[in-house]
Amino acid sequence: MLDPDSGSHPRLHPRLPGGAAPALTRRRVLADGGRGLLALALAGATVTACGSNKPPEPDPLEAELTAARSDSDLAAAAAKAAKPALAPALNEVAAERGRHAAALLEELSRAAGKPIPTSMSPSASPTPDKPAPPPTLRDVSAALRKSAERASLLVPSLSGYRAGLVGSIAAACVASFTVGLPAEPSPR
After folding, report:
1. Residue 83 is part of which domain span?
2. Positive or negative: CA dihedral 94, 173, 132, 86
3. Mean per-residue pLDDT pooled into runs of 10, the chain (188 residues)
């Protein structure tokens, strides 16, 4: 009877001195290696299945989306109460921050693999007994400044398109409060 690995008699191995049979054969190495890979794959699947149940971190662009929507609403409300000379600038800020919100929503939807919602359901906010005073130019400028600072701090942690998107939003916010909106006269 011949050894299937070497083709020689099982007790006389041609490559080993004295013809002793090797402890490892090609067949044994391949079979044990296959079993080892199977065990490794099963262990990996078990570890993945037993991973932590920690919820995924929220996308950092969600906070930017919330800020863009808030700034847009704030600027639109300020434009309604502003002097006629200031209203066009405030309306432009509201429109620009609305475009920022749309771009952020599009990126968030793309990253999540979900379609962009066609309509936004209005959030139910409690109606105060006494209406709040309308926002001022100073309020809009402060909100834009805060949004620009937050966005510029976020940019280094992002890469590719997202970094460019948030960087351009930060730059647009800075341009809006420094150039687009006139400076309020300081109180005397």
Report:
1. 61-116+133-180
2. negative
3. 55 58 67 71 63 74 95 95 90 95 94 71 55 87 94 93 94 88 62
